Amino acid sequence: MQAADAAPEARRASHVNRSSFAVVISGSGGSGAMTAGELLLRAAADAGYYGSMNRLFGPQVRGGEAAALVYLSTEPTSCQPDRYDLFVALDWEKTDQFASEIPLDSKSAIICDPKAGPVPQSIGKSGARTISVEMGTTGATPLERALAGKHTNVFAAGIVSALAGLPKSIVHDALKAVLGSKSPAVAKGNAAALDAGIAAASGLDIGLKLATPSEAPRWLISGNEAIAVGALRGGVRFVGCYPITPATDLVEWLSPQLQKLGGRLVLAEDELAAINLILGASYAGVPAMTVTSGPGLSLMVESIGLAVAAEVPAVIVNVMRGGPSTGIPSKTEQSDVAIAIYGGHGDAPRVVVAPTSVRDCMFTAEWAVYLSETLQNPVIVLSDQAFGLARTVIDPKPARPEPQSRLTAFSPDGSFKRYAIGGEAITPMPRPGTPRGQWVAEGLTHNESGIPVGGASMHAAQLDKRAKKLAGFDPGSLWGDVWGEGDTAIIAFGSSIGPAQEAARRLTAVGRSTRVVGLRVLSPLPIKSLTAALDGAERVVVLEQNHGAQLYRHLLAHKALPADAESIARPGPLPFRPAEITAHLA
């Protein structure tokens, strides 16, 4: 495996070390692109860098498109870059499927094996220069090559790690961590491939070396893993779920950790069973959670109403993906705002929160458990694929909310009324079997003891009680965050916040001061806090990744926006990039 001679212009070097470096490692499913990206990101984290890895893949189990989008930096990263410096092709199969999601230009470089065939037009039209490197790509398919022990993906990771200037010893340690308990023979073959890749990079001085990072510990975590950690910290000890992309790996990671803490995870036959399982566990006094995506949330809507009516806590994590229907399971979109807030028949108010970053996924998930338990109400956590599947290097030990628990104590004197009217909206919820604390959890309109009734007055009284709980909910400073100052304000949530922050930094740097208002609480809408955050703004723009401007319309409905507020709304799967937002606001 040797580097072929590159054209002189392809070998020109920059002697200034860079603060960031963006690379794509691509191939068809089974080629090992994700493993190569994971290896590279882990090594960078161990070396002290920040970074992130987003994954592109199709709905096929094997054989479809696959690409690891890795962004390394000396500073914290919050979004995908405007462009990629390097594209490494393990093969060219299925490349046309995702070419539009990988912005390259004439300053980019492409590394590929000449035996793999010509660069596809969809990639070559970018004007990026091509560098030929023999990677030992033999065999009919990427899978056959991997089975033959060629380890092309690790070879490619070796090239990239050397170009970025990552220490060889740290890269080898990262390889051992990625391989885990693989056999000595497999480990030896991969280590040899890594060394060969590092050696091949010695003749490719293309100016991609990173500057020296700060020496500090880092965490490498995905948004899904961060939500799982937050839920465990919040006290969740029962999870009922049904597999669905892109939320499945959340429960795969969570299951063994939950068992270590004495909890249980039950794989249900469908989403309807999953949410009803957690309502039963919660009724019994155990903080419970289910995890799903858009299609699954649709199936859970009726039981969300049951949780509201019976006043039973429940945390529902929705990792949003492209829709409607089955849409694009493996790509991101923020198109479940309306169903999360309003989905259901009758009046069924619930709390809807959204993490503001991968790091904040941990905080928001833990807080969601406390909110659900104290309000005795379902809480929906709106994450998305861009957060959920993104592996990100973050600063350790994120902040934690103040722990809270449900109200169970009651006076044993007299007749206990679980849904008592006339006092506090949040009434005691003793565990089943508590002496003198018997009650019925009922979805039918019920009286103060939970017994079904059909009268209009009690129906209205119970609706008022449940509405009063949420009307009295005050998130305080946790409603969201504001970054920067300026006459222009961008309102965003979830994974749209990161690119908005970077765009605001760029605009501010050229004299167009811009602030970003990131919402953590979407419902009940924190109108007073949002109004204060927008004070003095002459231009307000709502940024979201869905076709129907769902957040914008939600804010308008509550008169939380000025009359001339603008909407930037477009669907996935293409992420917002800072340059796109900057161009719109310039």
Main attributes?
586 residues; 18 helices; eight-stranded mixed β-sheet; seven-stranded mixed β-sheet; 34% helix; 20 strands; disordered N terminus; alpha/beta
What profile does the largest beta sheet have?
Answer: 8 strands, mixed
Query: What is the first-to-last residue Cα distance?
Result: 48 Å
Question: Which structural class do you get from the secondary structure elements?
Answer: alpha/beta
Quaternary arrangement of the chains shown? single chain
Average residue-wise pLDDT: 92
Shape: globular
SS element count, helices: 18
What fraction of the residues are assigned to beta strands by DSSP? 15-25%
Low-confidence stretches: 1-15, 137-149
Topology, number of strands? 20
Using the CA coordinates, give the radius of gyration: 26 Å
Strand order of the largest sheet: 6-5-4-1-3-2-14-7
* Helix percentage range: 25-40%
Note down, in words, how this protein is organized:
34% of the residues lie in helices and 18% in strands. The protein is globular and about 85 Å long. The relative contact order is 0.10. It has helices at residues 33-46, 121-124, 142-147, 152-164, 168-179, 184-200, 223-234, 248-260, 271-283, 294-310, 337-342, 358-375, 385-388, 456-471, 497-509, 527-533, 550-557, 578-585; strands at 20-28, 50-57, 65-73, 86-89, 109-112, 129-132, 219-222, 238-241, 264-267, 288-292, 314-320, 351-353, 378-384, 391-394, 480-483, 488-492, 514-519, 521-523, 539-544, 566-569. An eight-stranded mixed sheet has the order 6-5-4-1-3-2-14-7. Strands 9-8-10-11-13-12-18 form a seven-stranded mixed sheet, with helices on both faces. A five-stranded mixed sheet has the order 15-17-16-19-20, with helices on both faces. Residues 1-15 and 137-149 have low confidence and may be disordered. β10 (288-292), α10 (294-310) and β11 (314-320) form a beta-alpha-beta unit. It is of the alpha/beta class and 586 residues long.
